Every structure is written in C-alpha cells, then in structure tokens.
Amino acid sequence: MSAVTTAPVPRRSWLFTPATRPERFARAAEAGADVLIIDLEDAVAPVDKAAARRLALEALATAPARPIQRALRVNAPVTLDGLEDLLALARSPVRPDVLILPKTESAEMVRWIDALLSGAGCPLPLVALIESARGVAAVEAIAQASPRLTALFFGAADLSADLGCATAWEPLLAARSRLVNAAALAGIEAVDSPFFALNDAEGLARETQAALALGFGAKAAIHPGQVAAINAALTPNAEAVAQARRILVESAKGVGVVDGRMIDEAVARKARRILARAGDAAAGDPGKI
C-alpha cells in the first residue's frame, strides 16, 4: 500500500495589497489569489508606516473568510521602518504564512534575519525579493543562505530602475534566468514580477506564458483582475495532466515511449513538476498513478 501523499498547496498567484487598505484583503481570496501580500513597503506612504504596521498585525490576528495564504512584505531591513516592522512582528503573537524581504542583496542579510527571528522563537518561512543589481549578483548565495527560504521573488520595477533599462521582458531576461537557475539549485520556488499594464490582458497572458516557459512557477499581481489569468496559465490543463501521468507510468517501467516521444528520467522529472503545479498528489507518489 502506498503512503498517503498530500497534494502541495498551490502558490501560483501572489496579489499585492497595501496594508493601509484592509477592506481590500478579502478581495484577494474572492479573486482566487493563492497568496495575499500585505504590503508595508512601496504601497505605503512614509507618514503611514506606523499605521500600516498596526493594521497589518490586526488583520493577521483574524482568520481569513476564505482559505488563502497571507504574506507580509516588510520594509527593507536596512531601514528604520524595516527594523521596526521586524521587531513588531517578532514581538507579536500573530504571524503571516510567509515573510517577504525586499531589497535582498546578500546572504548575510538573510542569515541575520533568520537569527533575529530564531532568537524571538518566530519560525517564519522567508521569501527573498531580488530587485537590484547587487541582489542579482549575489542571488546564488542568497538562495542557499537559510533553510527558512522558500522562494526567490523577481522585482522587475526596481531592478529596471537600478539598471537604467526598460521594464520589459527582453532587457530583464538575463536577470530572470539567473534567478530561476539559483532557485532551481536551491530547490525553492521562483516567483515572477507583476505585469504592470492593467489594461493589457494580452500582454499579461504573453508574459505569464513566457515566465512559465523560463521556469517560474508563480507570478505576482497588482490588481485582482489579473489573478484569474495567472492561475489559468500556471495550472496545467487536463490534457497536460493526463500526459504527465502516462509518462510516469511508463517511466516506472524503465525507458519507454509516450505519444511518440522517448521517455527517460529527465522527461519524468518534468512530468512530476506538471503534476505538482496541478496540485496532483501523484507527483510525489507513483503508486497513485
């Protein structure tokens, strides 16, 4: 008898919402977002930082009406606001599901935050937001910096400002590729930047497909209206799932052929990733196929 395998919880769509607008938090779940990002950083004016911190902790103390993971993006840890965010979180009895660290530029920064949270008895998973030239240059070391780290998050807007390039796919392709490779080396997730043109549905679809083709398993959104398209693009359809399951059946027998294509372990690994993205427990348990 096969061991019981739980299907992985999907984290395809990450929706940013300002911490100062708690009335919008429920819309993230209603839109179908997998992760609500309660933002204390870019979406909050400097004069509102303290109020945003209080509102975020109050929101985290209340269970969401619908199932959704909640992430908290603090301010950059090298700033006073960032330090106050971290201290308030460490002292609070409430926790988000994950903590997003903006402006991550070194492995030392990740290890320092890991030590701070450990000392406070705060077992929070971390996501490193890579959005500067320094961050890209150190991304491989950052990805390996802490067992708390569950994902690397690509920040296109800040990085394009740092590089002086357009906030477009082609100028940032090399940086995206390096982040995906670093995440793969560390065995963690890669989350792509939001698409910033709110009225360009075709552009969002193209960029999401390009991110998937490059190796990203998730994409951020800045408006609830973007969530459905992201989820659809990052969820394998029934045909892809059926083919992946056939591949794993043949792979269990050794080298085989599915739909005229030779099957080996490399193909089987891709099939497992497809099933994992579909939330299929068979991805980790061939006995369930």
What would you note in describing this structure?
The protein has helices at 25-31, 49-60, 80-91, 107-119, 133-137, 139-143, 156-163, 173-186, 201-214, 227-234, 238-253, 265-277; strands at residues 13-18, 35-39, 69-73, 98-101, 126-130, 149-154, 189-192, 218-221, 256-258, 261-263. Residues 1-7 and 285-289 have low confidence and may be disordered. It starts with 12 loop residues before the first strand and ends in a 12-residue tail after the last helix. With 289 residues, the chain is an alpha/beta fold. The protein has two domains: 13-234, TIM Barrel (Alpha-Beta Barrel), CATH 3.20.20; 238-288, no CATH class. 44% of the residues lie in helices and 16% in strands. The chain contains twelve helices and ten strands. The longest helix has 16 residues, at 238-253. The protein is globular, with a radius of gyration of 20 Å.
Defining traits:
10 strands, 12 helices, globular, alpha/beta, 289 residues, disordered C terminus, two-stranded antiparallel ribbon, 2 domains
Q: Report the strand count.
A: 10
The assigned CATH architecture of the largest domain is Alpha-Beta Barrel
| Adjacency order of strands in the biggest sheet | 1-2-3-4-5-6-7-8
Low-confidence parts, pLDDT < 50 over ≥5 residues?
A: 1-7, 285-289
Largest sheet: 8 strands, parallel, barrel
Terminal CA distance: 13 Å
Quaternary structure annotation: single chain
Structural category? alpha/beta
Q: What's the CATH class of the largest domain, please?
A: Alpha Beta
The CATH homologous superfamily of the largest domain is called Phosphoenolpyruvate-binding domains
**What's the rounded overall pLDDT mean?**
89
The DSSP helix count reads: 12
The CATH topology of the largest domain, please? TIM Barrel
Broad shape: globular
Radius of gyration: 20 Å
Order of H and E elements: EHEHEHEHEHHEHHEHEHHEEH
